[in-house]
Design goal:
The structure is a single chain. The chain is an all-alpha fold. The chain has helices spanning 7-39, 46-61, 65-91, 98-106, 111-121. Helices cover 76% and strands 0% of the residues. 2% of the residues are buried.
Length: 127
């Protein structure tokens, strides 16, 4: 980037990237803290939940990337049987209506409807 773009434009682009990544991280942090407060422990202040998440992220960011990737791999391997069991229980449940699933999959969707669905399933719904 140094050889292709003038210095003043490079600084503007980097400041834009910094602000966008900071905003994305802040939104993610607030969303996780609100979901944690809503479903895990509603008695704790949001400030303490955000502080706990920031401390965990700060500690993890100081470790080597290899260690973080190995830890994530171990967690995935340990959680895979639980996820498979939940999918199995859902698929073999007699209340499962496959006709309704096919209706959802095959209906014609518009772009705004897809965005509404993704917003709904992201867990950001207020009561």
């Amino acid at each position: 980037m140094k050889n292709r773009i003038p210095n003043w434009l490079r600084i503007i682009i980097m400041l834009l990237f910094i602000s966008l990544w900071f905003l994305a991280g802040g939104i993610t942090l607030i969303a996780y803290s609100e979901i944690t407060k809503k479903y895990i422990n509603p008695d704790v202040s949001s400030f303490y939940i955000i502080l706990a998440f920031v401390l965990v992220v700060a500690l993890i960011s100081r470790t080597r990337s290899e260690s973080v990737l190995y830890s994530m791999e171990i967690l995935l391997i340990l959680n895979a049987p639980i996820i498979a069991w939940v999918f199995y229980k859902a698929a073999t449940n007699p209340s499962m209506n496959y006709d309704a699933c096919m209706e959802i999959v095959t209906r014609k969707k518009t772009y705004s409807l897809s965005l509404d669905d993704s917003y709904y399933w992201s867990g950001c719904i207020a009561d």
